[in-house]
Structure formats: C-alpha cells, structure tokens
Amino acid sequence: MKAKWTVLLLLPALLLSACGKESTETSNSSAGEKAGTVQAAPKDTLSKLREQGYATVGFANENPYAFKTAEGELTGEAVEIAKVVLDRLGIHEIRGELTEFSSLIAGLQANRFDLITAGMFINPDRCKAVLFADPEYSIGEGLAVKEGNPLKLNSYKSIASTSEAKVAVMAGAIEIGYLQASGVTEKQMVIVPDQDAAISALQSGRADAITMTGPALQSRLDGAADSKLERVMNFEQPVVDGKSVRGYGATAFRLEDTSFRDAFNAELDKMKASGELLEILKKFGFTEQELPQEMTSAELCAG
Length: 303
Prior knowledge:
It contains 12 helices and 15 strands. The protein has helices at residues 2-38, 45-52, 77-88, 104-109, 124-127, 156-160, 175-181, 195-204, 214-224, 258-274, 276-282, 297-302; strands at residues 55-59, 67-68, 74-75, 94-98, 115-121, 131-132, 137-139, 141-146, 167-170, 189-192, 209-213, 229-231, 239-240, 243-244, 247-253.
C-alpha cells in the first residue's frame, strides 16, 4: 500500500513539472520571436528608395552640371547621368532640392538628400565627409574678363601679381583654394552665391575676372550673350603642390551608403564602356577630352 500511495503522490508533481517546462519554452519562444522583430535590420538606402520609387537629390544651380531650365525642369550632365543610373537601379523618379553649393554636403549629411548630383569635384578633404562614386568627367579651369582683357590676366598667378585685380568666385567652390595657393589674397576675391552672380559682378565692374570650370564658364558666357565679356583662351591651368589641378566630378553619397554607391558605380561603368556616358556629356558641351578615363574615386581620395 505504501508503494502505491508514493506513485500517486508523484504523478501530480511530474505533471506540474512537465507543464511548467512547456510553458517556459513557449514563453521563451514567443519572447525570441518578439525580440527578433524588434532587432530586424533596417533597410539600406537603396532598398528604401526602390520601395518608395523616388530619390531626393541635392543640386546647385550650376550649368552644365545641374540646373533648372526656364520651364522648371531639372537637368545637367550630372542629373541626366543620375537619371539613367537610378532608373536602371529601380528608382524611376528624381526629386531635386536646390541649395547653395557650399551647403550641399551638410544637406546630405542631415538626410535632406539621398545623394548629391552637382558635378562635385573629388578631393581628399571632401572624401572625409561623403562617399564618392567614380568620376563622370574631368575638367580644367577657365577665366573670363572684360572685352580686350584690360589687365592682361591669363592665369591665377597673374591675378595675384596685379594687386588691383579682383576675381569673382562662387562660395564653396574649389577654385577658392586654387586661387589662394596661387597667391591671390582674400581682398582680391569677390565671393558670390552662384555663377549668374559672378557674371553680374563682371558686368557691373565689381570684378575684373571670373573663374569656374571650363564648360561652366562657357555655358554662362553663352547664356549672357554679352559681347563686352570674353573668355581668356590662353589661360594657364594652375599647378598646386606640383600637381595639375585638373578636377574630376562625381555623384556623392553618405559615408554609410556603400552598397548604394557600389551599385551606382556598376551601372556607370557600363555607360562608360558602351559610349553612352560620352553621348550624355556631349549634350552639355563636353568632349572626349573631358572623359575621366580609368580614374577612380579611390585614387582621387588618396590624394
């Protein structure tokens, strides 16, 4: 009899133990599922943009790189290249956000834009702040003056050696550093917000010269159609620290958007190989001389 009662007393305890184990396992499984839901990795930028169907791009009103037409259409070499690449990546709409050139990087970092399409030059300092795609074009500098070139300016050094000479240059533009390296003083520079303001400064006499990249300069002169202005055709390209200042322009991304940048590069490489890149560039006054050849953003960021 004693043995019988012992077995009967143990049965409820075993049942309770089994139920407790099942309840604990179910609870742990449920908690794990919930934890897994909370800890799911966020979508990367490229996936997010594909899903929403559009990308917001930052641009400065700088012809021929990125600008709005009189009808309000966003275009330019950098914009048209980005349109093709993004469309092939599954992003079929671009929404442009106009800002001053000097504010583009800050806007990208603050998530106002998903990428910058402004033909921005790649240099080591900028590479610390943004992630560049490989270059779309390469370009030299240009200089414009009043008709007849009264001060005989044909280089940045000639501006530096002519104390009364003043040169208009866009805020945040790389030309500011080139001018400084050539000996041009701060007092000789007239800082303007955009290229149209540079033309106005030259026309009004506030500046004796204006400088920007060659295609941009030619574009603004063509647009102004002012016979009292002329381009300096014998302009000597500046040399800084023993190196040519020939610049390479590219689309820029946030530092963390590596997969987005890499996908962009893959499509850009196809355009270079097929000749499609050159066809787009030609529409905005570029030639084969402005092709980036085999240069990469990694080489340019290394300095």
